[in-house]
Amino acid sequence: MTLLRFPATFDARKRLERMNEKKTYYITTPIYYPSDNLHIGHTYCTVMADAMARFKRLQGYDVRFLTGTDEHGQKIQKRADEKGVSPQAFVDDVVAGIEKLWETMEISNDDFIRTTEERHVKRVQDIFMKMYEKGDIYKSVYEGLYCTPCESFWTESQLVDGKCPDCGRPVEKADEEAYFFKLSEYGQKLLDLYEEHPEFLEPETRRNEMKAFINQGLEDLCISRTSFDWGIPLPIDEKHVIYVWLDALSNYVTALGYPDDPELYEKYWPADVHLVGKEIVRFHSVIWPAMLMSIDEPLPKQVRGHGWLLIDGGKMSKSKGNVVDPVVLIERYGIDALKYFLLREYTFGQDGIFTNEVMLRRMNFDLANDLGNLVSRTVSMIEKYCDGIVPDAVWDDEFSNDLKEIAVSAADKVSEQMDKFAYNMALEEIWILIRRANKFVDEKEPWVLAKDPERKEELDACMNYLAESLRIVSVLIHPFMHTTSERMRTQLGLEGEVVWEDAYKFTGSEGCKVEKGDPLFPRLDIEKELAALEELKEKAE
Ligand code: ME8
């Protein structure tokens, strides 16, 4: 791998300063096509990236979290033509909705890049020129097949039943003068990359798929089009626009200012992880590293491919009329309930089926029953038995020791799972603690202890242990459900910022004044909700 060449202004003192700074973490989502409003499948990926960004921030990293929109290409141009508006007007409208969605969901991205922005356009042209000057680009004629929905080139032999192997839709013949990137020269280097850095592409099954793809023989990649003009003009030949994937992949570095304004780039590149859906792993683990090799820049540390949310056994798509609108769910159940469901229900890397019923059950059982109940009964008991002040007391028995042990060891277990992007298991570790605390109430029967003044010390300790467990839960759930965490902390009378290290100690809530609030999650009438969601769906169609 090539080392970064820092500009001349970079001196030893600056390097030293940087070494003393916080460790950085750069995470990205794919940039979404603004061809339609986003659905729950897109939300899933952004929610995962957001939770990881918040988790790393809480752990003390200097995080950069990027998302955005991929606005050029034939697909967008077609959609704009159908609507009778200019492509720019078309994307402006859809992108406004996407930005609003992330704002509504309180997604914590540090930047939002649109590929139609000047800062991006100019830098993509610079990247193209670097590849050109390297001798990696030549002019020829493209004769092949093109899938517009995927913006992908295919050869006859790659088709499945004559259709696009990725999405199963018909492909069109493309026959035009074009520029090509010498991708074929990078096959061995990519295989070496997977060999030397297996962590670059996880899990192993995805790596093996990519190896097999490369071993079939990589063809040079067509990187310009002339049959439409909604794209970035080639700096050397303005009749051509740059292939939309070359344009889109560059966003991960152009958003950091590469190549002309390298401050952020030097600080955050290479990315720690590109989070992407499984069907675009190929672009990120073949084309993108080859482009970076061509311009002699470092490669991202990791590409992580997640599975799809399926509905009625198939992928959601507007044309099939089977999309789930996240806005409807947020309005009815709140951001945190939706985020919890997405992160808890599905296993990273695997496809999962979305149904309203599974979602509502999770919300009821895990959120209203397990967590909501624990908070409300703990606060009520502290009010009733201890005048609302968390007592300072310890107790030594099997139940108390067990609860304490599970509580203080949860943070490491959550970290371990997050390192593997196992969001569902990270949440499960937190719920093991929540369920243990609920069981503790049943075991200790505080209402019995309260009847015996001689057992006041034990009762006090019981209240302290519950408050402490909840304090730890409020830290652990913060990256996944920050609003719920903050509401819990208000009810527990906890002040100050959430600090990750506080999840390792079993002290800190004594003396706090609890304050009963609204239930964190109201109990849902599942039958009624199912009917209401069905009705809303029919109305939307
Ligand atoms: O591919 N379940 O954009 P895109 C889970 N612009 N994930 C889903 C999904 C579902 N049902 N439907 C879509 C593009 N996604 C390019 C990316 S990046 C340089 C350019 C995910 O809007 C999908 O897997 O078609 C992909 O990762 C992402 O949404 C963007 O899809």
Condensed summary:
The chain is of the alpha/beta class and 541 residues long. Helices cover 50% and strands 14% of the residues. The protein has a 6-stranded parallel β-sheet, sandwiched between helices. Strands 5-4-6-8 form a 4-stranded antiparallel β-sheet.
What does this structure look like?
This protein has 20 helices and 16 strands. The chain has helices at residues 12-20, 40-58, 74-83, 87-104, 118-133, 187-196, 204-215, 244-249, 251-254, 263-268, 281-294, 326-333, 335-345, 356-386, 398-419, 423-444, 446-449, 456-476, 482-491, 526-540; strands at 24-32, 62-69, 111-114, 137-147, 152-154, 172-181, 201-202, 221-222, 224-225, 233-234, 237-242, 273-277, 303-306, 309-311, 314-315, 352-353. The chain has a 6-stranded parallel sheet with strand order 3-2-1-12-13-7, sandwiched between helices. A 4-stranded antiparallel sheet has the order 5-4-6-8. Helix 14 runs antiparallel to helix 18 and helix 15 runs parallel beside helix 18. The longest helix is centred in the last third of the chain and has 31 residues, at 356-386. It is elongated. Residues 1-16 have low confidence and may be disordered. Bound molecules: ligand ME8. Ligand ME8 is lined by residues 30-33, 41-42, 44-45, 70, 248-249, 251, 276-277, 279-280, 308-309, 315-316.
